[in-house]
Amino acid sequence: MAQGGGSAMLLTKNVVVGGVLLFLLYVLQCVHLVEGSTYVVGGSQGWNLEARSWPDGKIFRAGDILVFKYDTTVHNVVVVCAEAYRNCSTAGYFTLTSGSDKVLLWKGVNYFICGKPGHCAAGMKIAVIAT
Q1: CA-CA distances (angstroms) from residue 17 to 12, 20, 38, 128?
Q2: DSSP letter, residue 36
Q3: What pLDDT is attached to residue 35?
Q4: Which 3 state secondary structure label does DSSP give 130?
């Protein structure tokens, strides 16, 4: 009767497992992890009444981060839907108030308004399209 058949089978399994692990390592090295870009809304002026045209000409991607910097005694940020954006409505939406709010963009149109009375109606709102 032949001896050592079990160790040959174990060696074959180890070679297969090792090959699979090497392949996975290779695949992981080929995959580039993409990090989103970070943008300060309004640039050096921050989130203010003139920020409405700030997104114009910029290309945003899902996963990018918008940072809203503002004086908390004067402004805030409300993430809203299209209808609330058009109507400047904050009802039912959470208001961001830190003065340095970070918001992750989702694919599609992302709507932001200032919830302080009269600010949105005066144009303090932006719609950002992320691809």
Answers
A1: 9, 5, 41, 47
A2: P
A3: 72
A4: strand
Report the alpha-carbon distance of residue 53 to residue 95 in Å, rounded: 22
What mean pLDDT value characterizes the chain?
Answer: 86
**Residue 67, phi then psi, degrees to nearest 5:** -110, 120
Is the per-residue pLDDT at 5 higher than 90? no
> Which one-letter amino acid corresponds to residue 122?
A
In three-state secondary structure terms, 115 is coil
β-bridge mates for residue 69, sequence order: 100
- Is 56:41 a contact under the CB 8 Å cutoff? no
pTM above 0.70, yes or no: yes
Which residue's entry shows tokens 């580039």?
Answer: 32
Q: Where are the alpha helices (DSSP H) in 4-120?
A: 5-30, 82-87
What pLDDT is recorded for position 28?
A: 45
